[in-house]
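Incident log, support desk, overnight shift.

02:14 A customer reports that sequence design results differ from what the structure should imply. Their input is reproduced verbatim below. On-call engineer (initials T.W.) acknowledged and began investigating.
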C-alpha cells in the first residue's frame, strides 16, 4: 500500500514511467502490480523472488527473537547468505552492496520486514500479471535464472533478457536497455 501512495505522489503519471526493480524490490512490485490498476509504461525486474526462503526453524527463530538478540542472529544470516547465496569471487560488488544494506538497516524495521517477507508467496500475484520484462544474471546464485524463467513462463506476454552477472544487470548495459525501451526499441527483449 505504501507503493500505491508513492505512485500517486510521482511528478509524472506512472503510465509514462519505466519502473526498474531488483531482488526484493521486484518482490514488492509483484504485490502492487497485482492489486492496482495503474501500471508503468514498462516494468523491468532484475532477479525478483516470488518467495523468500529461509530454513523453517531458523526463519521462525529469527523473526521471534527479542531485538537485543536480533543483532547477533543477523550476523549469522549475513554469513550464511554470503557463504551460500552469493558468488563472492565473481561478484564481489554484490557482497559489498548486501553488507551495506544490512549495516544501514534499523533492526526493528528489518525484523518487521522479515516477518512480512517470509510469509509472502508471490506466485498468486504473478499469475495475474502481464507485459513484464524479466532480467536474469547467469552468475547470480541469490537470484537464480531458473526462478526468473519460471516467473516468465507464468506471466502473460512477458519479456526476458539475460546478463552475465548481477553487476552487469545494474550497469551501463542496463542503462542503455532502459534508454532503448524509453525510445520504443524492444529488440533486445525476447518476448513470449
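02:41 Re-run completed on a clean worker. Output:
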Amino acid at each position: 500500500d505504501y507503493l500505491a501512495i508513492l505512485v500517486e505522489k510521482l511528478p509524472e503519471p506512472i503510465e509514462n514511467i519505466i519502473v526498474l526493480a531488483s531482488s526484493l524490490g521486484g518482490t514488492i512490485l509483484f504485490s502492487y502490480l497485482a492489486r492496482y490498476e495503474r501500471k508503468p509504461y514498462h516494468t523491468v525486474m532484475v532477479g525478483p523472488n516470488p518467495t523468500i526462503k529461509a530454513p523453517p526453524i531458523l526463519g521462525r527463530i529469527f523473526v521471534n527473537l527479542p531485538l537485543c538478540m536480533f543483532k547477533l542472529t543477523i550476523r549469522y544470516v549475513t554469513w550464511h547468505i554470503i557463504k551460500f547465496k552469493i558468488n563472492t569471487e565473481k561478484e564481489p560488488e554484490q557482497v559489498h552492496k548486501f553488507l551495506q544494506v544490512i549495516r544501514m538497516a534499523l533492526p526493528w524495521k528489518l525484523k518487521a520486514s522479515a516477518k512480512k517477507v517470509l510469509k509472502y508467496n508471490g506466485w498468486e500475484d504473478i499469475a495475474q500479471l502481464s507485459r513484464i520484462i524479466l532480467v536474469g544474471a547467469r552468475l547470480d546464485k541469490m537470484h537464480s535464472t531458473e526462478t526468473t524463467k519460471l516467473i516468465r513462463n507464468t506471466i502473460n506476454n512477458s519479456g526476458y533478457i539475460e546478463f552475465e552477472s548481477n553487476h552487469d544487470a545494474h550497469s551501463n548495459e542496463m542503462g542503455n536497455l532502459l534508454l532503448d525501451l524509453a525510445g520504443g526499441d524492444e529488440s533486445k527483449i525476447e518476448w513470449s
